[in-house]
Write a structure and sequence with these properties.
Order of helices and strands: EEEHEHEEEHEHHEEE
Mean pLDDT: 93
Strand content: 25-35%
Shape: globular
Low-confidence stretches: none
Number of helices: 5
Helix content: 10-25%
CATH class: Alpha Beta
Distance between the termini: 25 Å
Number of strands: 11
Amino acid sequence: MIENNAFFKNNDYNSNTFAGKQLPNHWWSRVYEYHWALKFANENDICADMGCGTVHPFVFALADKCKFVTGVDSNSDIMKLPRKQNLKFLNQDIEKLTIDSESFDKIFCISVLEHINLDKINNVLYEFYRTLKKNGRLILTLDICLDKDRHKANDTWDSILLSQFFKFIEFTEFNFDGNVSTNAYNILKRDKENICIYHAVLVKK
């Protein structure tokens, strides 16, 4: 059983088929992330996929499983995506949402935070907290660089340090749902950039 808050391991469940589609070979981590995250979605959930993108299938998989889903992305092409009765899209920056407070049971954010300027991440997490209902969950993954020196020199792959992520969470009112592991044994890793993937579940109390 995969812990809520931990690095993905090489032997965690993965499949390059998701929601009936073949995932591209270069989506090396999505074959783990999507399957892990989707297990938290339930049929009565009102959810958001923050930073859902315009080519990723996760938001549609959520719509197949949940009561209602909102996909949010700053790319205006999001408004060209096909709609469903229980799926809508918003073209917005996730650090400045116009969504009402306490709108969602769960927010999903798959490998997005590492692409955001560090000085804006607190704002993003505040908006996630604000728009979640009480006891709502934030399910997220992010690209982590294990080597501080390599992280500073890396201009080919967006990532943050695990210590930075934990520091951001300290300044929110989120709590981790379950134990927090930093065990780096047998972790899924892209060796060239020393990048690995951390997943977490945060709860609004």
